[in-house]
Amino acid sequence: MKAMLLKRALQLVTVVWGVGTLTFILMRSLPGDMAYRIAASRYGQDNVNSEAAALVREELSLDQGAFAAYWHWLLDLLQLNLGHSLVSGAPVTEIVNHMLGHSLLLALAGLLVSILIAVPVGLLCAWRGNPLDSVFMGLSSLIRAIPVFVLGVVFILLFALHWNWFPVAGFGTPAHLVLPALTLALSLAAVSNRVVRDSAKHTFQAAFYQFSKVKGLSAWQTFRRHGARNIAVPVVAFFGIQLVSMIEGIVMIESLFSWPGIGHGLAHAIFARDIPVIQGAALVMGILFVALNTLVDMLCLWIDPRGVRQS
Amino acid sequence: MTRTMTRSQWAGLSVLLGLLVFSFMGMVFSPYSISQQDLNAVLDPPSMVHWLGTDHFGRSMFTRMAHAVGLSFALGVLCVVTSSLLGTALGVWAVWGGKKVDHALGVVVNILLALPGLVVVLLFAAIVPGSFWILYLAISLVQWVEYFRVVRAITQNVIESPARQSSHMMGFGRWYQFKRHIWPAIAPSVFTLAAFGGANAILTMASLGFVYVGIQPPLAELGLMTVELFPFYSDAPWLLAQPLVVIALMVFGFHLLAGKRV
Amino acid sequence: MSVLLKLTDVAVYVGDTCLLEPISLELKQGVPLTILGQTGSGKSLLAQAVMGLLPATLSLRGVVEVFGKPLPLSERQSLWGREMVMLPQEPWHALDPLMKGIHQVAEVYQHVQGQSYQQAMAGAAQDLQQVGLADSAHKRPGQLSGGMAQRLAISAATAGGAHVILADEPTKGLDVSRRDGIVRLLQSRSAQGSLLTITHDVAIARQLGGELLVMKEGRLVEQGKAVEVLDHPQDSYTQALIAAEPIAWREVARPSRDQAAETVLMAENIAIARGGRTLFEGVSFSVKKGEVVGVVGDSGCGKSSLGDALLGLLPVSAGKITRSNNTAKPYQWLKLYQDPPSAFTASVSLGTLLNDLVRLHGIAQERIAPLMTRLNLPETLLQRSCLEVSGGELQRFAILRALLLDPVFLFADEPTSRLDPITAKDVTHLLVELARETGCAVLMVSHDPDLVQKTCDQVIAL
Questions:
Q1: What pLDDT digit, counting tens, does each position of A207-250 carry?
Q2: Smallest CA–CA distance from C142 into chain A, residue
Q3: Where does the ABC transmembrane type-1 domain lie (chain A) (predicted)?
Q4: Chain B residue whose CA is closest to C341
Q5: Which terminus of chain C has fewer CB atoms gathered within 10 Å of its CB, N or C?
Q6: Any domain includes A167
Q7: Does A205 lie at the interface with C, CB-CB under 8 angstroms?
Q8: C53, C82, C98 member nearest A229 (Cβ)
Q9: Is A273 on the interface with B (CB under 8 A)?
């Protein structure tokens, strides 16, 4: 437990350092007079003068040596001094805070629906076997081959533009959540249902599962007492692996559906070269990643107290 | 390897080879270039002149699709070769090189795993916008870790196995031990990882193109083409369908080729 | 004396291929029945068939009568736990790895006997105390030794009140010293009913008494009272099986050491620690040329580690190991492994492996054929991979490879424990003979004191 938390804390430090370093390189590598460009994007092309540029230069320590500037940059980051958006001028903390809520909503909804799909389908496939198994596994291989944004585009074309059941994009009503969450859920469930199925199959064939029935327990009692928990061990551990897909999925889905979350914000900021927002968004995404990983670790430990998850 | 390939693996290979031939034909034999516009013939349906129709600038879709597929394959192959060689070599080295090497590589790997792969690639892509080579670098950097972890875990088992120990005691050198014991054990996993890696590299590039931070216009790239053609979904659905279908086919082909999951 | 279980012409088929030829038997109240046979003799199928646990791909023919009534599969399953129960081969796999031991017993009282949770826990605690597991009640199976896990499994199996117990290799993987306890426990649990045991171990058949059936390749070869069959076996297979028991082996150990022979290796006061625990300390001995030294002890006592340390594969925590023969090359200190398939790579054929060795050390080709004949290895073996030959053949091939290097010292780590008794006897004798002839010293580790007693010139007990 302690070792696990320490490992995650170290990962957090790495995230902060990695994001800080990459965004620093990013800022340095931009062509032209940085300060002038930033001032232009901040105050509008017409209001730029050398005074404004000098102000920006000082604010971002652009005139110092590379190493000093790097140090300054990381220090700012450690104090969560994320600065202001180069585009809108709003404080990055505020922007990111706002985006985080939306992303969490989408992530939780997607995860929940994916569990609701993957667990019953996986268990059913393991329990009934063929032909049901082949049909579902074939279907999930097919969905797995479709990139999440292609899946999203198809959903938009069908359910929003063709049938008009749901809004195309945006945020506001619960109806807006349906398509993005469903896209995320399907792409996650297509992979995790297989893990559930494999784990369940493995457990159903295990000697201890048979022995429980031989001891006199009914099929249901055996499943409840020896099945559920043993099946859950690899499945929960897999959620840890799937977090990567989930966060990557969020970036794509938010961009596609104009969902005002971190992924959408990050992609937009990169396109607009809005470095403070890039940094803030990447940072929060990294922290979210670490936090969710920690949660999965703890869940693993609770389900399987024999040892910490190996990863 | 070919001896043991299943039917679905052959199917995957055929799909990929088919796409490769298509791409090659389009790049070599098409009379049009990817940026040659013909504003008198925009959004044309497929015809004898333009086999796959024309896009909103009247550019030949056949030519553009061929180049886009070629670009995807080039990136996929480069990334697979780089990351598999790097990951495999370092994975074996981590086990054989002693505790210090293992530890140092472990630190590097943990740094790379701290952030989701796509986020790392996005940040790299932001540094040099529209560059193919920065995408290649970033994707390879993210992908070698997967090979490293798998190869290291398997190699660790092989090193401790009686079979390897026995060869060592009978006086066989390291190259022999690698050839007879380690490589046969890791080869299937490396192959599977490579197939999935190819799919992921292509997917990542398309994803970046789709959110407009990858390859930039007027180059043809599958993700980028999807966004560009999306506004014309009702006027010319056959155009939007092309990049979508091809991306799915490429990924599906690689997944079939992989055969099994890791 | 009532008949609890009666099988009439029971056979097992996969498709049209017969795996177990028709067999008839009766299990009577108070008379244990033992089925004796080697691996692959179809004896486990018989137990599965009786319980109704055959995999779906196999089909059962014949009639199974329980308590005097012919019962179809589904009705036999309803007897599980309450009337009859089967003990699994490997207790570690048969116990839920995530559940504490006491709960795995208590759940039977609760769900099968219908007791309250408190009653069930009390009953389970009492059961575990009876089998000496009171201190380990709240451990998970992974924390138990093989013997403890088997006692837990027996407690869990019999908590439902079943008196007809089927035990499939109940002592597999256990040390000799633990076997007796398990057998006695099984006997006491089945005192009110009866016990059907399946084993490859003649000693267990002897200990259990009652009726005995001997099986070979899915066929019944001999049947009768255990005492009679074991003391006066009629069938040649039964005779071979009994003769293969180490206790029945002819003595090949030399009565006294040849003091003149040169010393190969000296171990002085060595100690070995693994994982912070000292396995043994203060062990001293010397090994002479052509001598066979036996090492015995329970599992986990460090007997394999001792051999590895002598080969320099493991460090010693104290003491000194001296190799007296300075002219010997490093590759003349070799090891034979317990599990033959794990000691070979399956990536190429055995012939290729042999060629690799011949080329590396410039071994004369003409030495191979006579040695292969001597080891009873057919030429065709070389075209196959290690997964396509039997364990006995593979272990003999391992001996061939080792001998081609003219070893001065060979550490044989339980080289025959995974082989059938008859094969094990042949391989052990071959190894000892060849070692004597070539002057190679052998350190033979075994869990079986009889085996070591009969074959080794010197015995180290850890």
A1: 899 889 888 888 899 999 998 989 998 898 888 888 888 888 99
A2: A306
A3: 100-296
A4: B163
A5: N
A6: yes
A7: no
A8: C98
A9: yes
> Residue range C191-220: average pLDDT?
86
* A249 min Cα distance to partner chain B (Å): 9
CB atoms within 10 A of CB B31: 8
Contact C264, C334 (CB under 8 A): no
- Write the CB contacts of A205 (distance below 8 Å, at least 6 apart in sequence): none
Q: Residue A213 is nearest to which of C80, C89, C97, comparing CB atoms?
A: C80
Residue ranges per structural domain of chain C? 3-244, 263-461
Q: A239 in a domain, yes or no?
A: yes
Q: Which fold has domain C3-244?
A: Rossmann fold (3.40.50)
Query: Parallel, antiparallel, or unpaired for β C69-70 and C58-66?
Result: antiparallel
Q: Quick one: average pLDDT of C447-456?
A: 86
Q: Which residues of C touch B (CB under 8 A)?
A: 311, 313, 329-331, 333-335, 337, 339, 342-348, 353, 356-357, 360-361, 401, 405
CATH class of the domain defined by C263-461: alpha beta
Give me the pLDDT at residue A310, please: 38
Q: Is B184 on the interface with C (CB under 8 A)?
A: yes
Fold agreement (C3-244, C263-461): yes
Q: What is the CATH number of the domain that holds A224?
A: 1.10.3720.10
A207 touches chain C (CB under 8 A): yes
From the CA of C98, how many Å to the nearest CA of chain A? Answer: 7
* Structural domain includes residue A247: yes
Residue A128 within a domain: yes
Cβ burial A192-227 (10 Å sphere, 16+ → b, else e): bbbbbbbbbbebbebbbbbbbbbbbbeeebbbebbb
Reference C47, options A77, A214, A146; nearest CA is: A214
Q: pLDDT tens, B90-124? A: 999 999 988 899 989 988 888 888 888 888 898 88
Distance between CA atoms of residues B115 and A116, nearest Å: 27
- Chain C contact present for A301, CB below 8 A: no
Q: Do A146 and B251 touch (CB under 8 A)?
A: yes
Query: What's the full length of chain B, in residues?
Result: 262
* Number of domains into which chain A is organized: 1
**Nearest by CB to C98, which of A215, A221, A230?**
A230
Q: In chain A, at which residue ranges do the beta strands (DSSP E only) sit?
A: none
Structure tokens at B57: 């600038």
Residue C329 pLDDT exceeds 90: no
pLDDT at B56: 77
- pLDDT tens sequence across C390-444: 888 899 999 999 999 989 999 999 888 888 888 888 889 889 988 888 889 999 9
- Nearest by CB to residue A216, choosing from C88, C90, C108, is C108
The fraction of chain C above a pLDDT of 90, given in percent, is: 8
Which chain A residues touch C156 with a CB distance below 8 Å? 211, 215
Instruction: Please state the pTM of the whole predicted model.
Output: 0.84
**H or E element that contains B85:** helix B61-96
Residues of chain A contacting residue B103, judged by C-beta atoms under 8 Å apart: none
Domains, chain B: 7-258 (1.10.3720.10)
Best CA proximity match to A266, nearest among A112, A150, A103: A103
Ranges of residues in chain B whose predicted pLDDT is under 50: 1-2, 261-262
Q: Which residue type occupies C199?
A: T
The β-bridge relationship of strands C211-216 and C219-225 is antiparallel
Inter-chain CB proximity B255 and A270 less than 8 Å: no
Structural domain that includes position A202: 99-303
Amino acid B260: pLDDT: 66
Neighbours of C, requiring at least 3 CB pairs below 8 Å, are: A, B
Cβ distance B169 to C333 less than 8 Å, yes or no, reads yes
